[in-house]
Specification:
The protein is mostly helical. The protein has 3 helices and no strands.
Length: about 70
Amino acid sequence: IDAVPGMEELLTPGQEMEAYRSPDEAREKAAYYLSHPEPRRRIAARGRQKTLQAHTYLRRMQTLLQLTRAS
């Protein structure tokens, strides 16, 4: 994932996703994870679990409703 400010509030870098800040960093991380399948699988599994748990349409709508009620 291209590093975007605030992304770490949704998914934890190095635990649930990986991000890069430059093309060189993207290449380095890609090469690392291609040659290290276990860490790659763990991060992918954690990211999938977090996404299915916390980032569904239902959760987004609940958050949106809470925000509109609060204002």
